[in-house]
Give the backbone structure.
Amino acid sequence: MKSINDRSQDIGPFVSQTDDAIIICRCEEITKGEIRQAIHDGMFTVNEIRRYLRAGMGLCQGQTCGKLVKNLIARELNVIPDQLDPATSRSPMRPVEMKVLGNEEVAHV
Amino acid sequence: MSKHMSKYNDVIIIGGGIIGNATAYYLAKKGLSVTVLEASKDIGIGGSSRNGGGVRQSGRDTRELPLAMWGIKNLWPGLSEELGVDVEYTQKGNLRLGKTAVHQKILQGLTDKAVSCGLDVRMINGDEIRAINPYLSEEVTCASWCPTDGHANPLTATLGYYKKARELGVRFITEAPCFELRKIKGVIRQVVTPDAIYEADKVLVAAGFDSRKILATVGIDVPMMPLKMECLVTEAEPPMFLQMLGTADADFYGHQSKHGSFVFGGSSGFEHLNKDNGSPISSSIGASCTCRGIIKYFPALADAKIVRAWAGWLDDCADHVPVISPVEEVPGLYIACAFSGHGFGIAPAVGYNVAEMIADGHSTIDLSALRYDRFKPKQ
Amino acid sequence: MKRYDLIVVGAGPAGLSAAIEAARCGMRVAVFDENAKPGGQLFKQIHKFFGSKEHQAKIRGYKIGETLLAEAAEAGVEVFLNATVAGIYLDKELLVQRGEVMEHFKADTIIIATGAAENMVTFEGWTLPGVIGAGAAQTMMNLYGIKPGQKVLMLGSGNVGLVVSFQLMQAGCEVVALVDAAPRVGGYGVHAAKIARCGVPFYLAHTITKAEGSNCVTGVEIAQVDDDFAPIPGTEKHFDVDTICLAVGLSPMSQLLKMAGCNMVDDPRRGGQVPQVDENGETSIPGLFAAGDVSGIEEASSAMIQGRMSGLAAAAYLGFLSEQDKDNRLADLEIALDSLHQGMFAPGSKGKTIAKTDEGIAVSQSLLKKGYLDDADLERFINRSDQTDKKSGIHPVIECTQNIPCNPCQDACTRGCIKVGKTITALPRIDAANSCTGCGMCIASCSGQAIFLVDEDYAPGYASITLPYEFLPRPQKGELGIALSRSGRPLGYAEIIDVRSAKAYDQTTLVTIKVPVEQAMTARFYQPETNAAGQ
Amino acid sequence: MTRISEHPILGETEKGRRVTFFMDGKTIEGYAGEPIAVALKAAGVMVHRYTQKAHEPRGIFCAIGRCTDCVMIVDGVPNIRTCITPLVEGMKIQTQDGVSGLEVSE
């Protein structure tokens, strides 16, 4: 079993750091401290951090902060970042108005 | 590789979704030792985090309605405080919308049944609807209105139960799919995963549609199939309305979240025929179809931008009502699955009552109508 | 449904190259790109490319882009711009936003060539307006003709940071400092030397600790870092800047591949999440390919070759190219790609400390730490045992000290004075048996601007130095300005004795200055007296 | 001067017609077809929006439509990526405050 799968493992107490106020997710304004706290609340994966805090769920869909969040989790859990999956890729790749998304055209040839 | 025998538990729960997490929390509160085994890498990755967030009583089958009403009265209002996580519970009513005489008939039927169970729900007309929600188009002519319904955030509610259960000492193991349940000397005893064998006095199977193949290892079947449904979410918008919405036609359902984004689910009519590649992936037509449906009801949302769409599998039961039940023929085994797409709103009540069932042998709400052995062929 | 033999996502160097090869094999090819302009990053790359003739070396990026577009048009490729691929679905179906419409397309083969996205680094104030990505700076100045700022601090000494710093100065911005947390310059030494000689100070083993300002950036604070990259208290330095530019690496933009269900791997050497691919870029889904940065961060030169390989493989997959023709043509491309993967900056050398060049010469530590060759280091490279040098009359001085895949200088000299040989990563040698005419083609052909023509016998007590110049205003003959050293230090007055422009020089002006003979091997740049460095 | 009048390699930048548009009620000039963000940059506008939670200023960051930091209200529609949206004569641009328009005192 990979250590990351045991959610009861001791990762030590949450200790505040001087740069905890720095924004990591620019869209949803989630700070480094909030993400670190969430990891100590048991959120050990990028998906869980997203769902718990909305980090990476804003307008840019985590394209800017994805790697930063992953590295923060890896550091806090003391694993290498490659062990962590990035968030699921979802359409639409860019924000699109409902009236446009609903306006489909299927060209027949 | 020889599998190590894991430490003994009072209860093992298979499935780290909201049902498993909530049950684990209420069991831990009673002082039982619990391990939750989750097959995937993430807690709450299935339907628990893919649904539309409805916390409804109206529109439900009368067999599960008591559970829904009890949960809304006793658990949802204090849940954020209890879990220490904002689950964004908003109790501002549910509008189930209709446009045609056929819709009116469907809604009236549901309403009559719910009223007979003591629920405050009534039919209202177009003007009354737009007094509650002025953004609805003139096409909407009738609705059922249940003022005590509402919505919550499925993501934080699911992970909130996980967080709190973990704090109370529940052990959660991810990437631990259950291959097999094993009876020892006539009673349930072991849960076999690729890495380890876990032992407990009691086992709850709450693994969505995967429950079917897990239960098969001890000769139990729940007649259900996976059904792929799709959802989408908009960018944050200024606050517009607080009600939960649905339609008689089931073309969409959803609400505006505390964050400002609108979360909507919808159907294209091909759900039962959709294919996938082994994970629940969006179809090429689903989101577009849902958008068209929404705009007909809410012309004002035409410019709202969709930032994300996703799909998820329902564990759709033969009669579209969950199985929540002890399995007396396999002593120590319990089932909570087949929620058929409306499990989120009743999840706290299910967790609470299943914990009672497991720990005390009886539950506050009578769940006998939801037994696993209720399925009978046509006579 | 509208169907193509091949749909390429991304009209950058890899995507266009793939589309051209496939269309030339007779395939119906469509390329979708979300941008208003095609070419990906090529049109932002205004420097001359490295490599060999087959890699389009010494041609500026944007001109390569123009060539690719012309070739695509000629081959019958349909390029759709402002066409955003919203998603990729089962059965090789794409949903594409074009204007107010979502269109469904299917393809028998798909090549994903979506490129890369910039990495980020956080510090106090990094969300302030005025903190921008290096790509943003390139987009603003090279595509839209607007300065990203007046006074800029660059974070990152990889090739992007170095190249963009030079471009900022070309656009008329002042680069106040180049900062990198690593203890050594990450990119090509020649790129570093170009900006060091303009007087840009290098702060290696430093990081940004704070962006200052309330509504937008008004300054920046940097500090030295320890071995764990933590800032050392007391080492803080402040600069007045209005712009902070981040160039801290790239990550493959592989979301579409992931959505398609390809097997993905996390490979730090390729820059992050990348698809598992075979040697031609085919993913775990048959008929679905990845080419360019999306399957591993490299340079545009290699992206073009990878694109061509995947285009040919797609053609063979659908029977538009025989297996034998495919094998023959891929073999040539593999050799071309392989030659780019050699030398000190080869993908396999990432993260390794290299002490000596292939020729056995100790690498210049001053180049790695300060951005320029100091006199002692230079001495090792210009007085080599394997070259015959002479000091009388005009002759080239080549300050190229790292094994990078590049050899246009060899072809540029029609007199055979410059030799690189078959291994294109070898350091160029001077063969003094052949006499230099001072034509300057070597200077203009050197993408690293590392070749100078020096004549110690120009006049009694004076030497002439001809150097590449790519700034405005262009110096005028007879003008008096300041000669600068390799570190940008003023050495004294220099007179412009010749200014040459030619089509063959491709926008590089050859400026010849007259300096006291003792500066013949120290003066390497010219600054008009009215201008401060870099302005 | 923020616009590059002449570039040593690229020469003169091709520009569209000179047009006027409006930013929080003020009249600004730009070139038709260039990204709104470029016209604003030329006019010295750095702040495109203030964030929802902390009301912090944001402006251009990636300039290629990915990061969505430069979004503004364009002709009444919020969250428009100004770095990739072409300028059209007479456009009404507003500084975005959270998801709404910033109150501007004239």
Summary: The mean pLDDT of chain B is 95. Residues 203 and 275 of chain B are 32 Å apart (CA to CA).
